[in-house]
Design goal:
This is Riboflavin biosynthesis protein RibD. The chain is an alpha/beta fold and about 325 residues long. It has ten helices and 15 strands.
């Protein structure tokens, strides 16, 4: 692995650590490497979006930022904000020799302008290193920037034969501990987690993060319901209400079948996580109801398989919605 790839991988890891915490801003990672090849500054977007990753890394680096190489996962912002200075201006003042950027910022207030300002200051700028990895890490914010809503991830725990519960409704536990730990990691990377009122009444779920060291990263909780408000929960009365979640980049939908079906029928699911256990339930509750398809041909080409791996005895399958553009 080249030095550039290695340091950008460090910046991407910092960006991923901020996913689920940085909204409404993007989760960005930044690493500053001095002339002797040592990391002198690290930063990731702080909780709530400020300070930005570059500002944190520059503060750590201090005067060592001069002549350095900066690795950042998204183009430094070029617009002024009441919440803080433009990162492109902070970098110009710090005078690094070179800046390596993974992804150009699609925000029209910055798009290309940050790079232009840095180059005008005599700083070498390289764009595109690990672009795809940065796009995956920033998928929630990019989705909200493009579609006006968070990226919606649907999580399902299924048997081999596609059941989510016994006829009685019993579903604890279809999957094993390794799969459940992975779900908690997904929760830690989400801004909000949602279930239907039926799941809330049946299971009284906590929907928190119970991984050592990550307990404070439990996301906001939401109910899809027309019923009364519940203390500590936000209410969505319709799946289309996701368009008013302007401070949520990543929304995790955990259940149950009616809620999953409602989001799929509205074509609001961008990613599906299927935790499949090696069990057969037989007669039981199916994962989905009618999602608006009347012909098998209409079902093809809508979903792309992107990843899978084993979690103990269980298997995780990841699918992404295929959308034009």
């Amino acid at each position: 692995m080249s030095a550039d790839k290695r340091f950008m991988a460090e910046a991407l890891a910092l960006a991923e650590a901020a996913r689920g915490q940085s909204a409404p801003n993007p989760n960005v990672g930044c690493v500053i490497v001095s002339t002797n090849g040592r990391i002198v500054g690290r930063g990731s977007t702080a909780s709530g979006g400020r300070p930005h990753a570059e500002a944190i890394a520059l503060q750590q680096a201090g005067k060592k930022a001069a002549g350095s190489t900066v690795y950042v996962t998204l183009e430094p912002c070029a617009h002024q904000s009441p919440r803080g200075p433009a990162c492109a201006e902070l970098l110009r003042a710090a005078k690094p020799e070179r800046i390596v950027i993974a992804l150009k910022d699609p925000d029209p207030r910055t798009s290309g302008k940050g790079i232009k300002r840095l180059r005008a200051a005599g700083i070498e700028v390289q764009l595109g290193l690990d672009r795809d990895a940065a796009r995956r890490s920033l998928a929630g914010w990019l989705t909200r920037s493009k579609l006006g809503r968070p990226r919606v991830t649907l999580k399902l725990a299924l048997s081999i034969d596609g059941k989510i519960a016994l006829p009685s409704g019993e579903s604890k536990w279809i999957t094993g501990e390794d799969a459940r730990r992975h779900v908690h990691l997904e929760r830690a990377h989400s801004d909000m987690i949602l279930v239907g009122r039926g799941t809330y009444l049946a299971d009284q779920p906590r929907l928190d993060v119970r991984l050592p060291g990550l307990e404070e990263r439990s996301p906001r909780r939401a109910l899809l319901t027309h019923g009364e408000a519940v203390d500590g929960w936000e209410i969505l009365t319709d799946p289309q209400d996701v368009y008013r979640l302007h401070d949520v980049n990543e929304l995790l939908v955990e259940g149950g079948s009616a809620t999953a079906t409602a989001f799929l029928a509205e074509d609001l699911v961008d990613r599906i996580l299927i935790y499949r256990a090696p069990i057969i339930v037989g007669e039981g509750k199916s994962s989905f109801g009618y999602v608006g398809l009347d012909a098998i041909g209409d079902a093809h080409g809508r979903w792309r398989f992107v990843d899978d791996h084993h979690l103990g005895v269980d298997r995780l399958e990841v699918y992404e919605r295929v959308r034009e553009g």
